[in-house]
Amino acid sequence: MPWLLNVVYFALLVLVSPVLMYRRWVHGKYRDGWSEKFWGRLPERTSSRPCLWLHAVSVGEVLQLRSLMRELVATRSDWEFVITTTTRTGLDVAKKEFPQHTVCYCPLDFSWAVRRAILRIRPSAIVLIELELWPNLIFFADRLGVPLALINGRISAKSFRGYRRIRPLLRSLLQRFAVLAAQNNEYAERLLDLGAPRDRLHITGSIKFDGVQFDRGNAMIRELREFFGVQTGERVFIAGSTQAPEETIALDTWQMLRQEFPDLRLILVPRHKERFEEVAQLVLGRGLPLRRRSRARFGPICSAPASSSNEVLLLDTLGELGTCWGLADVAFVGGSLTQRGGQNMLEPSAFGAAVLFGPNTWNFRDVVEQLLSRNAAQVVRNGDELTATIRTLLKNPNAAHELGQRAKSFLATQQGATGRTVRLLLNLPIDIDHSEFQRSAA
Predict the structure, then answer these.
(1) How far apart are CA 440 and CA 372, in angstroms?
(2) pTM: predicted TM-score of the whole model, two decimal places
(3) Would you list the domain boundaries of the chain?
(4) 219-412: which CATH topology?
(5) For 4, 271, 349, 378, which has the most beta carbons within 10 A of its beta carbon?
(6) What is the pLDDT of residues 193-223, one digit of tens each?
(7) Judging by DSSP bridges, how do beta strands 148-153 and 80-85 pair with one another?
(8) Region label for 3, one of left (φ > 0), alpha (ψ between -120 and 50) or beta (otherwise)
(9) Which ranges of 200-343 would DSSP assign to H, the alpha helix?
(10) pLDDT at 109
(11) Would you call 223 a catalytic residue per the annotation?
(12) Which CATH architecture has domain 31-210+417-441?
């Protein structure tokens, strides 16, 4: 099986190599980490202390780990933690969030790479976030007696339809887990249908609810407010986690509404760092003054006087969007007017912002349904609806406030998944015999 998978992976790699080379050349992606990814040369662990290897594929999953890691470290200060990720942005955020722990790329699922990675880390257990089911990684961990846990498990309807076509493989993978923790009943039923053992399946809720901030008065938000020059009495419209053409739509909306509401500020936060410069040029191309967060340490921080209220604000740094939502009166969550499937709307909801998103939110379908059923968010289907909805909210600040408070109150009732997840992880059988690693290495 491992070598058959290697052949399939290699064929796929050859097939997509033109795309990878293009992105490497044009966007600067995929230029680092190949020793870790392709050969499994992760940092070699030398101590004999228990070690938890947690894999979070990208930025969203890395940020979910914040509350989990706080509780794990507080409970098991004698453990070591290794955090792996797949993307460059995920790696950057993980290094910033967890500087005291080992952070590196996860190996690609070639048999030689995952085998070497496991032997170098010698984990006491491996924890996968959401639904990262890589067959070779799971097979080799199981062969070496390393307990596996899937936490915050979710499986969309689209993914479920695809996985059912390879149900025998999925059943074989899921049977190797010591713990399977799903976010809700719906996801748990899908895992059962794919072959998950019922006695190892748990429903914990989503740790995403535990990782959000509620306090608009914290020091980081105050620092962002001061940097962007947002004055008392000004209202803030944030378009966050956006993709093209959502920045254009947000700019059109803001420029139109500024004629009626001169106190309205705009903060743009593109989803991917490769587009920061593109969005900056989009703003400047309209003749608008621009203030960029990345200029905080490097020379002039804006192209307009600090007191200018007609400048566009661009958050072009990593890991600060979760805090920046605390400035929003109205929040548009991007990836929802495109085919991305939506982005995380929990963070602006927790701050009590009036949350808007487009109709394409299948990545967060359960959260969206819960918010909409409580009249705690609104859907906008295009730029015209975005403009009209924000105009209505600005004209009726009490209604906007109530919309945000309903979302905030709902999120407050959903917390507790982190504690339930930690208790499951602490019960993993981590006292494994590392002599098997030595025999395999030999």
Answers:
(1) 53
(2) 0.79
(3) 31-210+417-441, 219-412
(4) Rossmann fold (3.40.50)
(5) 349
(6) 999 999 999 999 999 899 889 999 999 999 9
(7) unpaired
(8) alpha
(9) 219-228, 246-258, 276-284, 321-324
(10) 93
(11) no
(12) 3-Layer(aba) Sandwich (3.40)
